[in-house]
Design brief:
heterodimer; A: 347 residues; 67% helix; B: mainly alpha
Amino acid sequence: MAEPWVLELWEGYALPGVIIVAQILAITAPLLFFVAYLTYAERKVIAAMHLRKGPNVVGPFGLLQPIADAVKLLFKETIVPAGASPVIFLMAPMLTFILALIGWAVIPFGAGLVLADINVGILYLFAISSLGVYGVIMAGWASNSKYPFLGALRSAAQMVSYEVSMGFVIITVLLCVGSLNLSDIVLAQQGDYGMFGWFWLPLLPMFIVFFISTLAETNRTPFDLPEGESELVAGFFLEYSSFPFALFFLGEYANMILMSAMTTILFLGGWLPIVDIAPFNWIPGPIWFAGKIAVVLFVFLWVRATFPRYRYDQLMRLGWKVFLPLSLFWVVATAGFLIAFDLVPNT
Amino acid sequence: MIVQGLVFYLFAAITVASAVMVISARNPVHSVLFLILAFCNAAGLFVLMGAEFLAMILVVVYVGAVAVLFLFVVMMLDVDLVEMRQGFLQYLPIGGLIGLILLVELIMVFGAWITSPEAGAVASVPILPPDQVSNVEALGRVLYTKYIYLFQASGLILLVAMVGAIVLTLRRREGVHRQSISAQVSLKREDAIEIKKVPSRSGV
């Protein structure tokens, strides 16, 4: 018979620890799989829009291409430039990758299907996304080289600018929900009108502002100035090779999926079916959630194949002179509307 | 509770250690990075105390915005360590004097500390249990009722500081081509091009 304190230690700490680790693996393993195939999807989608074939050699339909890419990067030599400061140089890609993964702790995949159901979930996500800039700045500074440094400076200014309007968009949604919990945000969109009750319709301008800000936040086209090839060679990760480069790459794509998940939760009803009637509500929530993320990601890729890159002053103008006043106005307007028509939640 | 205690000491130790590193690191960029580490661990301490909203705000505001600007400035400084060392002994007396004055002032402030008679009454008001009222709600209730004037005043002070910073840095430079997007968009075909019938063998 075991001692009581051993039993307490097991039931109180060890067993929950094991369960949490298993849950973390159940989230990250599929996530990394999707990240790998997002790169494949990106190449295929853009190829189709360019009337090309895209990767089609490795495996059937080129399906093994992401694996071949990963293996190639793994077997290359990791080069740390002689003038770089090595600790920060290697910490930057790790930070980017870790930040892209820990955001998933609070994402609800279905009703009650969430690792950490914390009260300030949306703030947590916002904090994680605002930390993403450090990976870029550290990489640019530690490389001790002019193009990465310029790329890092651009990126820092860009991410800080677009975060402000993202914050206001989140506040607008929170005004309509009355809670910072991500599951509550999804449940507040549940109603009799199916997909027309989700926040994308009543808050349509904010939905557009948020989507464009996520493009800027993840350094995607048309806001990919930090890595603008034509003027900065490759931007902040110019000096990276092999696995540190792969970590940046994976981090960027995992961040794209995370931002799409955030868009889905805030505006597209999370795991809710498009209409709550028979054939649609048989499909489980996580599949709806993944499907909506896939739609948002497709738009990300579509934008990349369609738009040219913004000029830097136009980017700043859009962030500070267009989005910031618009989102600030919309916060005030939404608050006024909710008070005037007595629609404030939780009162 | 043992684990909570251990986690507390872990966060606290890292916070103190990185705070020491902020002032002792040779490289200013390393200093700022240690400062960020200290902020993150302080956020961890807030979470342990159940103040999750404050923890997240600390990360969003200080780590996500303020420290980015710090890093931005510090990265572009051209710091020569040898040159910095040269003036060290010269500035030591005045620096030490300022430190001493600050210390004396702090001692005076803390020595004259009197607990307000209201404080006991405020502290004895039962706080609603955390499962009934969330962090955000609890903060909002005092911030927008009892402390509304102080809250607004701090907002005004920040606004004035912001306006001041903009006024200080605003300058109109000559010879800069500015883009007027509305003028470009509202341009009509008739304004931009002119169609002329050119008779043969005579030119325009």
